[in-house]
Amino acid sequence: MEYNRLGKTGLKVSQLSFGSWVTFSFQLGVSDATKIMKIAYERGVNFFDNAEAYASGESELIMGEAIKKLGINRDSYIVSSKVFWGGEKPTQRGLSHKHIVDACHAAMKRLQVDYLDLYFCHRPDPETPIEETVRAMHTLIMQGKICYWGTSEWSCHDIQEAYKISKELGLTPPSMEQPEYNMFNRSKLEKEYLPLFEKEKLGTTIWSPLASGLLTGKYIDSSPKDTRIHLKPYKFLKDAFESDEFIERHEKVRLLNELSNNVGIPLVNIALCWCLKNKHVSTVILGASKIEQLEQNLNSLDYLESFDIELMDKIENILNNKPV
Ligand SMILES: NC(=O)c1ccc[n+]([C@@H]2O[C@H](COP(=O)([O-])OP(=O)(O)OC[C@H]3O[C@@H](n4cnc5c(N)ncnc54)[C@H](OP(=O)(O)O)[C@@H]3O)[C@@H](O)[C@H]2O)c1
Q1: Cβ(285) – ligand 1 distance below 6 Å
Q2: Which end of the chain is more exposed for a tag (fewer CB within 10 A), N or C?
Q3: 288 lines ligand 1 (CB under 6 A)
Q4: What is the pLDDT of residues 206-254, one digit of tens each?
């Protein structure tokens, strides 16, 4: 495992990290979560991603218990939370100073930690001035409750605004963004954010590297039942997978699978190495509902060296979706 600086910060984050969206609570309880996090940690993963919204807080409760059971030193791992979808009441959502503070305290309690390493604004909030959000995050940093703050799925324009406000008012700017990045979702990382990488050296913790499992190839001929798309709250994924919009994606996965057979690299590892090859990716957040999946995904590091320009070109020819 290698460790990358998170953007221009001094924080070293493992190139592969682990997140609990969908899996913790809906698929894994404390015991299995502890086992899977143990393997991740022992194989060098030092960043565990979470959010107040995941299973309505249950995911953070499970991760907190798992960390306690593992008995790992607080200074040896990084844990995150994200604020935006806390509850139904008007004060429990969005990026107001109040909700940012309440959600931070609640996440620390659920995760059983004294501070959060990374704290993300899970989405932009058009109903809160960016200045209010920047000030709230800066205050939490000054209070020692969070180390770094960042955004998730914000526009380049809004992130630039956050930098501008921080500079003008002497507040702490964001350090990282958490965008979706995989073979089918490339525009933010490969196009929109380029000025931010250039000027601000923004770090990225990218999500859904396997497009929720589509890029494993397991949906090519069938729809296996024990997967996330069959969970009730995630029916939207099943609907998307079965929609006309996805016909082209399924065809690309079939071609990528043929390429995988030809070059002797499993498709999951091709998809994950492809993300790792982007120099603007600080860490690829893995998801896994089974230990074998996590182990296979971590094996991607063994294939990185064989990932040459020729192979990247072959992949590009199949994808044919490079942002211009
Ligand atoms: N900021 C945001 O808005 C946001 C949004 C989404 C996710 N995230 C973060 O990013 C993390 C990763 O996202 P993700 O879980 O969507 O990642 P992903 O890699 O796209 O999907 C992971 C899922 O794919 C399946 N899978 C993984 N490895 C496999 C393998 N080797 N063989 C077969 N199936 C495999 C498993 O689902 P099955 O149970 O279906 O087999 C697994 O849970 C999340 O946990 C979360 O921390 C952030």
Answers
A1: yes
A2: C
A3: yes
A4: 999 999 999 999 999 888 999 999 999 999 999 999 999 999 999 999 9
Query: Nearest-5° angle of CA 138, CA 91, CA 124?
Result: 55
Q: Is residue 324 part of a domain?
A: no
Decide if 247 is inside a domain. no
Is residue 163 part of the annotated active site? The answer reads no
Distance 69 CA to ligand 1 centre (A): 23
pTM higher than the cut 0.85: yes
**298 Cα to the center of ligand 1, angstroms:** 13
Nearest residue (by CA) to ligand 1, atom 28, is: 293
pLDDT in tens, 33-87: 999 999 999 999 999 999 999 999 999 999 999 999 999 999 999 999 999 999 9
Residue 223, in any domain of the structure: no
CATH code for the domain in which residue 165 is found:
3.20.20.100
Structural contact between residues 217 and 183, judged by C-beta atoms closer than 8 angstroms: no
- What backbone torsions phi and psi does residue 242 show, to the nearest 5 degrees? -95, 5
Domain that residue 60 falls in: 3-213+268-307
CA 192 / ligand 1 centre spacing (Å): 24
The whole-number average pLDDT for the span 12-23 is: 98
Q: What is the whole-number distance in angstroms between the Cα of residue 131 and the centre of ligand 1?
A: 33
Q: Closest ligand 1 atom, CA of 23?
A: 43
Buried b (16+ CB within 10 A) or exposed e, 209-247: bbbbbbbbbbbeeeeeeebbbeeeebeebbebbeeeebe
Q: Which of 41, 54, 77, 219 is catalytic?
A: 54
Q: How many domains does the chain have?
A: 1
Identify whether 235 is part of a domain: no
